[in-house]
Amino acid sequence: MISKRIRITILSIAVLIVSTLAVLTVNSAENGWDATYYNNRNLEGNPVVTRVDSNINFNWGLGTPDGKITPDNFSARWVRTLNLPAGRYEFTMRADNGSRLFVDDKPIMAQWWDHGLRTDKAQVNLAEGSHTIRFEYYEATHEAQAHLYWSRIG
Q1: Strands 87-96 and 57-61
Q2: What is the pLDDT of residue 3?
Q3: Residue 95's closest CA among 110, 73, 79, 80?
Q4: How far is CA 75 from CA 6, 36, 72, 114, 150, in A?
Q5: Predicted TM-score of the model (pTM)
Q6: How far apart are alpha carbons 101 and 136 in whole angstroms?
């Protein structure tokens, strides 16, 4: 016969395991960017690579994101929906060549021209709930880098 204390302990462990799995399942749905890569600067035509990137923090140097992608004159689009608490958020994009950022389809920053590595920041107020973040990038020639970060302020 199992004592009441052991049954409560077993039940507590089972609840902990189930709740941990639920949190991991919810978080895994939000832990990735739908990425599409194109062999042109304009995000046009059919993508040559589609994948999920865990974050946007790339320094390809003179290389390429994938063997199917040309090392110069390519573009990429990353899209992700995040469930965020209300607040003011600062977005930082760092890129060597063109980049632009949209939140809920509204343009936040755009540096869509050939340039060396630069960092740009913008702040935006967001209501609590789901927000779609879209980051677009193109590589012209030479070094290729694309980075996107954000943080809640205050």
Answers
A1: unpaired
A2: 57
A3: 110
A4: 59, 8, 9, 12, 22
A5: 0.80
A6: 6
